[in-house]
Amino acid sequence: MEKANNYQCPTCGGALAFRPKSGTICCESCGNEYSVEEIESLYKKQEKIEDSVSGEWDASFGGEWGADGENMREYSCPSCGAAILCDKTTAATKCPYCDNPSIIETQFSGSLKPNYLLPFKIDKKDAIAHLKSFYSGKKFLPKCFSDENHLEEVRGIYIPFWFFSGKSEGSAVFSASKSYRTRSGNVEKITTKHYDCFRAGNLEFKLVPADASKKMPDDLMDSLEPFDYSQLKDFSTAYLPGYLADKYDVSSEECIKRADKRCATTFVNYLQKTVKGFESVSLKQKNIVFKSGSIKYGLIPVYLLYTKYKDKRRLFAINGQTGKVAGTLPLGKREAFLFVVRSAIFSLIIDAAIIALALKFVF
């Protein structure tokens, strides 16, 4: 049997945790720091990766977990069905998606190991600061919501994503118009001419992301963009200590249409930018063909905060790279009413002051 990689401190045997700001692995017991490369060289065993093909896509993933999998733990949420992964030193007591405290530890099993991982760049303290800034200045935010929001319960989790890379070629027809003004005496004449503009070309796209978690709303994840995918690293479990990771539950095949749609929008915008010199331009028809490409599996850093306000579930997300916050804040009826009352009183005071000043000048 292969030796399990438990990522303990080489000096004292204590638990290790990845530090986003420094990009190093730190021992929580003795304080020694190590680079990811140092930890990998000590524990990681190179394994042969086999590529598989799905349809016209080369779906090459990170192979089997092997010895790395022996160091992983899987927690299953009976409420929302989330399957959360973490290293065996992490205690998962609540689900980051639904806040259910009944997290059941099960035997880890996973056939696909990620190709890539985008490391956290901000820590939990920074994430809370960004969330407080998001709340700041919201006049109608219920006071009890922010007071009872349990900011310390923010959790860092890696969200699963599929990444699509390939080439596209095609054409599009744009309807364009341009107006001309002519004057004869006092009469001005406006003539609008309409054109059909044909454009064709090819475009290479790289690492187009598609959320692979059913628990993470697509619109919420889209709102956190952009991520700097140039910072993607080859997957290593050395980045996981101190964080959770979600297993994908949306297949790459299910995400192809979403990826194609994103690529098609980019392709059309690329062609439309070449239609210049007109007052208006709109798409009339398009014909785009996506050639075979590759599909990779990766993990993206996000901080999550689950809250409830008047028994309504609210999920807030923070970009683990930039600190950008996404989520819907509740509207407090009491706060809105008080704001209207204060505005009305202030308006009356101003009006009274103006009247008094006017009467002073009259008399």
Q: Quaternary status of these chains?
A: single chain
Q: State the low-pLDDT regions, or none.
A: 1-5, 45-55, 332-342
Order of helices and strands: EEEHEEEEEHHEEHEEHEEEEH
Number of helices: 6
Task: Tell me, briefly, the overall form.
Answer: globular
The percent range for strand residues is 25-35%
| Mean of pLDDT | 77
Gyration radius over CA? 28 Å
Number of strands: 16
Q: Which percent range fits the helix content? A: 10-25%
**Alpha-carbon distance between the two ends:** 102 Å
**What is the makeup of the main sheet?**
13 strands, mixed
Topology, pairings included?
Elements: E1 16-19, E2 24-27, E3 33-35, H1 36-43, E4 58-59, E5 72-76, E6 83-87, E7 104-106, E8 116-117, H2 124-135, H3 143-147, E9 155-184, E10 187-211, H4 218-223, E11 233-234, E12 244-246, H5 252-272, E13 280-290, E14 294-309, E15 312-319, E16 325-326, H6 333-362
Parallel strand pairs: 4-14, 8-14, 9-12
Antiparallel strand pairs: 1-2, 2-3, 5-6, 5-7, 6-12, 8-11, 9-10, 9-13, 9-14, 14-15, 15-16
Structure notes:
With 363 residues, the chain is an alpha+beta fold. The chain is built from 6 helices and 16 strands. It has helices at residues 36-43, 124-135, 143-147, 218-223, 252-272, 333-362, and strands at residues 16-19, 24-27, 33-35, 58-59, 72-76, 83-87, 104-106, 116-117, 155-184, 187-211, 233-234, 244-246, 280-290, 294-309, 312-319, 325-326. Strands 4, 5, 6, 7, 8, 9, 10, 11, 12, 13, 14, 15 and 16 form a 13-stranded mixed β-sheet that branches. A hairpin with a 4-residue loop joins β1 and β2 (24-27). The longest helix is centred in the C-terminal third of the chain and has 30 residues, at 333-362. The chain is globular, with a radius of gyration of 28 Å. It starts with 15 loop residues before the first strand and ends with a helix. The model is unreliable at 1-5, 45-55 and 332-342 (pLDDT under 50).
